[in-house]
Specification:
six-stranded antiparallel β-sheet; single chain; 6 strands; 37% strand
């Protein structure tokens, strides 16, 4: 049906800067971070996550498909950056990004932008 209203969703765009290089290159650390986000927000994975570890002193890309969301990360050790995206359909998913990413990644600063998606005017 064209023009039908859909539920408003929320997309979280998170940049963690000044992160520990070794952590940004650690697949176990990033998996633990994803497990914490999913558990804390009661999200439901629909299968195992997909991860790619780039060769050499490069970063990692990860993606989890969730029943009503997706969670992705791209790490850039050379810049001390982790770029995270969480999309949640039909609900807000507030989470303590700042403190959690300081603890998990050694981030010095964390910025979070929240976009409402699917809202009709």
């Amino acid at each position: 049906m064209r023009g039908a209203a859909i539920e408003t969703s929320h997309e979280y765009l998170v940049d963690a800067r000044g992160c520990a290089v070794a952590t940004l290159q650690s697949l176990p650390a990033l998996r633990r971070l994803f497990e914490r986000v999913v558990q804390d927000l009661a999200l439901v994975p629909v299968g195992p996550g997909a991860w790619h570890v780039f060769p050499g002193p490069a970063g990692i890309t990860g993606a989890w498909l969730l029943s009503d969301a997706h969670l992705t990360i791209h790490t850039y050790p050379e810049a001390g950056l982790a770029a995270i995206n969480l999309y949640c359909r039909g609900r807000s998913a507030e989470w303590p990004w700042d403190g959690a990413l300081r603890d998990a990644l050694g981030a010095e600063t964390v910025s979070v932008r929240v976009l409402q998606r699917g809202a009709t005017s």
